[in-house]
Amino acid sequence: MVKDYRTHLQKVWRETHQKWEEVYDPYYFRTYKVWDGKGQEDYGGGWLRHARSTSIVDHAVDHQLSAEPQVERFPVREGEEHQKNADLVENGLAAIFQEAALLESVLTWKMMSKHLIHYGYAVHELDLDSEVLARRADEPERNRGESDDEFEGRNRLFQHYRRSAMPFRTRAPHPSDILMDPTEKQPRIAIKHVKMYSAHLYELTRTKKERGRKVDVWEKGDNPWEEILVDICWTEKWHALMVAGNEDFWSRTFHFKQGQLLFVEPNTWGFVPYAHAFGNFGMQPTAASGRGPSALAVGILDPVIPDLHAQAQAIAARHNILIDASFNPILVKGMGADELRDQLDKGRIIEVNEEGTVRRMELAQLPRWMFQSEEWYGKDIEEGTVARVLAGIREPGVITVGQHAMIHSAAAKKFLGVSKQMEHLASVACSQILQMIDMQDFDLTIRGHRIKPEYIEHDYSVQVHFDVIDPMIQAQQRELELKEVELGIRSDETYRSSGARIADESGEQKRLLRQWIRKLPPVHQALAMEVAREEGTDRLLQRAMALAAGQGAAPVNGNAAPSGLLGPDGQPLASSMGQMDAGLEPATLGQNGTNLEG
């Protein structure tokens, strides 16, 4: 069944994969042929391929991922405790996302964005690191002759690893390696058609065999690093691995047969760990014969590939003209050509019959419009792909923030579809991570943020945002929202979540209360006394405070003396430190924290 379904999906995706390999990749990696017609093979400059096709994709990715993903978790029910749990889940997922991306050889979401923009299609893979899980499960046992301190040290390291080790892996596999039904947004069946080293396949099957699973253990053979083509199939209920080598391989290998299943086991995760999405640059045609994933998996370069090719030829031709102008042939008469050629180290010399002295050959004067053709192609490419303003290039005549904001906003709308698809993929990944934490009973602390099943409350819904933000537009928007807060038509909490984009609302409220407490004059003076005690100047500070309280302070600039201890600017200490609150008189505290005035 796995082999039949894989063959079916390969047929469905064949045209799409062929387009990626033969059209899209040559232009991104700049391996296409500049001159592809008959008689053009000898044209110079064929090696000169401009970077426009690559920079278009890279600039689009840099713009589309200009900010970190924002995780939004709604409280499961009403109440302060549920809001606190939602904030803890947000912080934990954000830390998991950041840590998982850095554990991969490439930045996961950067590569996902590149796949969506270049291929018009992307696949996300979620996985659990089996080595991390094994280390978290294997509690240390005391070795013979091991001292108490040595065993306690190993146990502490294990407890730390069990709390802080991050078992999740978020990957961006090449879209051609994962086969799924293109008509389903969240497919119930996925097949990973890839190559594995023979040694890795052996370790995988051996480990499952040791854990009591029904598995045919793979034999490494003479070459443990031989690449074996396998099909890894996932459904919501089952997980299977089948070796799918070619006939030449199977004619010289072991007791396995081509297409034999090495293992079939229940899928304890409860979901297919893959999600896919199209980049929204394509559309199904009217003719039924042209429909399929190839019409939807359209990259950003697709409509301008003829322009890119023509521009590359124009650049190569202009370069040829430059070379001809710089090293144009020398014309001489008679038998002196050979002697002159030897003297000039066999340069470009042409012997002619006409009378005259040695001179350079005159080159034809090219019309100006020939050099403008490259600009025409460039305008068409820009209109079909990425506007220069998104690459940080200022448009001529744009001098105000409003003009720039209008142009930037209009150009950025092209990538709204990509952003929405990225949000879908990230949201599915976060939901699956929450489900695994709950099902596997993980208690993790990632980058100082703890997340455990009690915070999740058996609800796996979550939303991730990839908002494309322009700093100038954001500054204007925040200024407007602050005015709405002052007018009372927007709450502080709403402003912090939408305007200031603070994800941890309950944590921010605690920090604001802590800041308010520190501003209280008694608390501020007590903190000042504590610092003075650490510095060894507490007695001097106490004497000065008692003197200021008993005798009053000297007048400042002819004005009445302010009461209490003065700061460096002659004002009350709390006011000098920016901590004075209206209606609160500072209390003078002694060394033991008592009120000296009372």
Structure description:
The protein is an alpha+beta fold and 598 residues long. Among the domains are: 50 residues, no CATH class; 71 residues, no CATH class. Helices cover 47% and strands 12% of the residues. The strands form five sheets. The chain has a five-stranded antiparallel beta sheet. Strands 3-2-9 form a three-stranded antiparallel beta sheet. It has a three-stranded mixed beta sheet with strand order 11-10-12, covered by helices on one side. Strand 6 and strand 7 form a beta hairpin. It is globular, with a radius of gyration of 35 Å.
Write the layout of secondary structure elements.
Layout: H1 2-28, H2 52-64, E1 70-72, H3 80-103, H4 108-118, E2 121-128, H5 130-137, H6 148-164, E3 168-171, E4 178-180, E5 189-197, H7 198-210, E6 227-235, E7 238-243, H8 247-250, E8 261-266, E9 274-278, H9 293-296, H10 305-326, E10 330-333, H11 336-343, E11 349-352, E12 359-360, H12 369-384, H13 401-412, H14 416-440, E13 444-446, E14 449-451, H15 453-456, E15 463-465, H16 471-487, H17 492-499, H18 505-519, H19 521-535, H20 538-551, H21 573-576
Parallel strand pairs: 10-11
Antiparallel strand pairs: 1-15, 2-3, 2-9, 4-5, 5-6, 6-7, 7-8, 10-12, 13-14
Helix pairs in contact: 2-4, 10-12, 19-20
